[in-house]
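Example record

Each entry pairs one chain with its bound ligand, zinc ion.
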Amino acid sequence: MDLVLEYCDEYVFDAAYAYLFPAPITFSNTTTLSSPSPSSSSSSPLPTSSYARDAIPRQLASLFIIALSAALALYFLFCTLSYYFVYDRRLEHHPKFLPRQKRQEIISSLIAAPVIDVMTLPWFLGEVRGHSKLYNRVGEYGWAYFAFSAVWFLVFTDFLIYWIHRLEHHKLVYKHVHKPHHKWIVPTPYAALAFHPLDGYLQSLPYHIFVYLFPMHRLLYLGMFGFVQFWTILIHDGDMISGHLLERFINSPAHHTLHHLYFTCNYGQYFTWADKTFDSHRDPMPELDPIHESLKAMRAKGLLGKKTD
Ligand SMILES: [Zn+2]
Ligand SMILES: [Zn+2]
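Structure tokens for the complex follow.
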């Protein structure tokens, strides 16, 4: 995040803060203005802000804007691509698909995203103020560690998210925190951020904790963040491909489709090993595909063979 903040400061925020919160004009004892004057424009310094780059209130505000813009840009980009090119829109005829569900999912995501962003600020602030183990040069730990840290990031966060998610299904917690995400029994990709804000925050915690425990290259961390959002959208695309070799190891969209349909299976995020080890795995069999119910409903409405949208 500090890398992005550095670029944004350079190209956007320095000018924006100087305009919104200009540094006070001071007078020297020779009564000349120390701030820039029109007559000395060629040699005068650029206008500055009373909030320097390392001022905590400025960093918090900047981080909030950057994180929210990036999250929403990726959300709308990946969700829209997934919805129009991957998601089978016949699923919208499923008996458990809610009226105007896609709209509800988007509204829920738009409400959750800024709240999650605010809760996450202390972690981002710690990163930009140098309290995490993020590093700059690959040479510091070498390429082998660089590759290992990417895999370890996925394994570590997958394990923690598995348990956070599973505990969220405990009856004392479920209805307060996780139930809003299960409103979507047959989700569309737009359900990817449609959480109770506390739920979204809790499930994102492992990603933030990771870089405070283990060294990770800054650019790799940035890439992994984009990947995490891409993956969260991907597993909500309702694709029920089953029988693929990778499905034995990877928590596919088919696994997460079953999680939304049956609630108490497939809590994992990237891999199936935790579900298999802790006895919550359910194989995505072709007969469990919700498309069958959708096609039945479409047949009953006389829609099959016609344009479905
Ligand atoms: Zn989900
Ligand atoms: Zn769940």
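Strands lie at 134-135, 216-217.
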